[in-house]
Amino acid sequence: MQPKVLGVLILARNGDRTGFYQDPYTYEPTFTESTPLGAVQSFQLGSYLKSTYLESSSPLHILDMPLDPSHPIPPSRVHVHAKAGGEGATIFDSSIALLQGMFPPTPRNRITLANGSTITSPLGGYQYVPVEMIPDSSDTVLESWVDCAAFKKHITKVYNSEEFKEKEKEAKHFFGSVHDYVFGRPTTLENIWNIYDYLNTELVYNQTFAFRLPPTLIEQARGFANYHEDAVFSDKEAGGIGNVAGRTILHPILRSLERIAFDDDPLRILLIETSYQPFISLFHMLDVLASRPDLAGFPNFASALSFEILRGPAPELRDFVRIKFKNGTDDSEFQTLRVLGHEDDTIPVTEFIYRLEHYAIPDTKQWNSACSNNRWFPFESTLSTATEQTSMMAVALGALSLFAFAMFALMTFIKHTIDTKRARRNEVTAQQHGSYATFVVNEKAGLLP
């Protein structure tokens, strides 16, 4: 008997885009733009998700979602987040394209006005699904590795490791071969992500380059880039800083699992559109690579990781999680993953939450702690915690005290200057008036006790 699907959490990577550079030592991103190819990839992923979870004929149709595919989507049952990092709007664009495929226009998306006329939404009934975003300067959930001091140290540790140095020796011949095709870009293992991204982008969009690039170079570049990204965005310990991309995104995943399974919440679909980094960390934290070593590295464009919440059979009616992965257009459908050492395709929701929740980073305060960041300075306004507010007040009081002391010192100096000038005037006057002045001064002096 097919279990009922109570809801799904979808982690989706953006579709293809123009060239994208990342600083190999800080992972600060640069601006890039989505392309029509990337939009089509994301749209196709959305259409696949629709046929899998929303079509009434699908065995995985989500409970309480409309059986009629032309029925407008209930807004309270869908929640969408999109990363708004330094790469610009390309990930947001991918989320919109995915939603267009998942919730296509329907003529039933209309309203009847008081005068009796009926108005259909533009574009044949376009469905406007809200997308939540956080500015890149304060997104510690979907871009948690940027501005994380401990993660920068982790990158340096990876680059200084013996394993990395051995891989560097292995890549020496490749770098010699690719040198003439990257036009001055550093041919080092530290910079391999940017080398691969440049080669891949040119291979897709530049026909002259595609005709000139020798065979196997792109495959070699992908292999070394997979090693590099897997080493940087993972850790030997599930709670290590190398997994920070997975640890921050884990919190909304676990919270949504609880909402769907236990809270009698209307939420049925959580979609998080993001970049590739969280996939790598989550695969390590979930111990996916033990049975799927081929997934080490970064996923393809428009990949998706699905967390299905399933209701078990009666009489127990226990809820389970089943995790599936679709590696972009390389896979025609989802492949089920076995996680956390389980031989079965599912794991109880309660066990899944229990084994992972203490690795999750739920808020900015704990992110700062994990990253060993010092954010006490009052102009760091992105983190409005009570501790920071206390620190800001202490700084303000200190500044006020310093100002009061400076004013006191200034007034004392001015008074001393005036008294000195007055004394000099008296001395001059005494010299001018001779003995009379001396007499007056002595007379006054005699009045003192």
Structure characterization notes:
The protein starts with a strand and ends with a helix. Strands 1, 2, 5, 6, 7, 8, 9 and 10 form an 8-stranded mixed beta sheet that branches. Strands 3-4 form a two-stranded antiparallel ribbon. By secondary structure, it is of the alpha/beta class. It is built from 14 helices and 10 strands. The protein is 45% helix and 11% strand. A hairpin with an 8-residue loop joins strand 8 (319-326) and strand 9. It is globular, with a radius of gyration of 33 Å.
Report the biggest beta sheet as strand number plus sense, adding barrel if it closes.
Answer: 8 strands, mixed
Measured distance between first and last alpha carbons? 111 Å
Kindly state the number of beta strands: 10
The residue-averaged pLDDT reads: 87
The helical percent reads: 40-55%
Q: Helical segment tally? A: 14
Q: What's this, in brief?
A:
By secondary structure, the chain is α/β, with parallel strands linked by helices.
Give a topology summary.
Layout: E1 4-13, H1 36-53, E2 78-82, H2 90-102, E3 110-112, E4 118-120, H3 122-125, E5 132-133, H4 149-159, H5 162-170, H6 172-178, H7 192-205, H8 207-212, H9 217-232, H10 244-261, E6 269-274, H11 277-285, E7 304-311, E8 319-326, E9 335-337, E10 346-348, H12 349-356, H13 364-371, H14 386-446
Parallel strand pairs: 1-6, 2-5, 2-6
Antiparallel strand pairs: 1-7, 3-4, 7-8, 8-9, 8-10
Helix pairs in contact: 1-2, 7-9, 10-11
